[in-house]
Amino acid sequence: MISRRLPGSFESNPLTREIASFRREGRPFLDLTTSNPTRCGIPYPETEILAALASPAVLSYDPDPRGPARAREAVAAWHGIDPGDLVLTASTSEAYSWLFKLLCDPGDDVLVPSPSYPLFHWLAALEGVEARQVPALRSDRWDLDFQALAWAVTPRTRAVVVVNPNNPTGQFLSRGEWRELLAFCAARGLALLVDEVFADYALEPAPDHLPTALAETGPPCPLFVLSGLSKIAALPQVKLGWIAARGGPARACLEALAFIADQYLSVSAPALAAAGDLLGLAKGIQAGIRSRLASNLAALDAERARRPSLGRARVEGGWSAILRVPALEPGDDLVLRILREAGVLIHPGHFFDLPGDGHLVCSLLPADFPAGIARVGEIIEGGRPE
Predict the structure, then answer these.
(1) pLDDT score for 139
(2) What is the mean pLDDT of residues 19-42?
(3) Please, where are the H alpha helices in 62-174?
(4) Which residues contact 152 (CB under 8 A, 6 or more apart)?
(5) In the predicted model, what is the mean pLDDT of residues 334-342?
(6) Cα(168)–Cα(128) distance, rounded to whole angstroms?
(7) C-alpha–C-alpha distance, residues 130 and 15, integer Å
(8) Which CATH architecture does the domain made up of 14-43+283-382 adopt?
């Protein structure tokens, strides 16, 4: 009776079972996987946030499929775009699902990046769409592989998804990649979806990086840019995201996108009423997050200086770091050993489709990151147990 669009099994993997055992038995561990800023000791202007969410405007209901004008004006002012180009959603995940509904029929496909966050497969599958992974070209960074993109296109491909900067690689698109990507999509009649939730968190960007796709005013293909309060204001619990249409081809789709939105009207009144005030607080919240990211990256580099076996990829932007470690044991075995022996939880690289066993992925948000990464360094430097 269950749809084939869902997983065939919901059985927990060994790492999930081990974490549950730690929690059940009350054993403490340091969590270097958490990317929820509300759980990482980030300073928030609590009084101002609560006041924004207590606006009298939440007592009335005046639905607009694209989102109330006042909320769209606040988002547009943040980005420097026209509020008429926006459709508000409850999250970036919902934005993807609406865009897949807009662009695809059941059985169509979209091209998605790899490595990346393990989200696209299921968001697409739940719409009856296939997410076809396109591996990045690994050199000293994860470059777009346009040959792989071309090979991945099928007669049923409808869109290309990119994340700028990517999660977890931190890779921003270069300006050269951007120009080639626009031409690629235009030549094949494909829409381009750009997820920019981490765009405000540049750490070690290359000089030619693309800060935002929103500056593209006349793209030759339908261009949709996604973002939201989850990262911009570090408020994932408020549940407000948006889709920005850039250029004529995307604007021509707005009426159809509004029709989809009208079937759900999913954004809550408190989130819509508070949007302007919360965006007004975002710069201060971001400053606290950037400080945490920078200090934890410095702690990682200090540990690397003590541990020759521990390396890292360049973190152009975002909240994650990719660690390079000797590939002496399978990634799942290594992260289980780190949890059991050091009391630290960290992601295996394959969780994000990183190739091979020589990668771990950690969040740079936790307050106890320096202590956690020091324990990880001890395990890595100790090598594989006999």
Answers:
(1) 67
(2) 96
(3) 69-79, 92-103, 120-125, 146-152
(4) 111, 132, 133, 134
(5) 96
(6) 26
(7) 28
(8) Alpha-Beta Complex (3.90)
pLDDT, position 385? 58
Q: Please, what's the b/e burial string for 113-128 (b: 16 or more CB within 10 A of its CB; e: otherwise)? A: bbbbbebbeebbbebb
Task: Evaluate if residue 188 carries a pLDDT over 90.
Answer: yes
Token pair 């926006």 is found at 86
Amino acid at site 352: F
122 CB-near residues (< 8 Å, 6+ apart)? 7
Q: Pick left, alpha or beta for residue 25 (phi over 0 → left; psi -120 to 50 → alpha; otherwise beta).
A: alpha
CA separation, residue 188 to residues 128, 182, 221, 244 (Å) = 22, 10, 9, 22
Q: What is the pLDDT of residue 384?
A: 63
Nearest Cα to Cα of residue 194 among 233, 246, 125 = 246
> What 3-state DSSP class applies to 130?
strand
Q: Confirm or reject CATH 3.40.640.10 for domain 55-281, answering yes or no.
A: yes
Range(s) of the chain covered by CATH 3.90.1150.10: 14-43+283-382
pLDDT one-digit tens code per residue, 98-155: 999 999 999 999 999 999 998 999 999 999 999 999 999 776 678 999 999 999 999 9
- At 318, list the tokens: 């975002």
Angstrom distances, CA of residue 70 to CA of 73, 88, 228:
5, 11, 16
Q: Please state, rounded to an integer, the average pLDDT across all residues of the chain.
A: 95
Exposure of 66 in the CB half-sphere (CA atoms within 13 A): 21
pLDDT at 386: 52
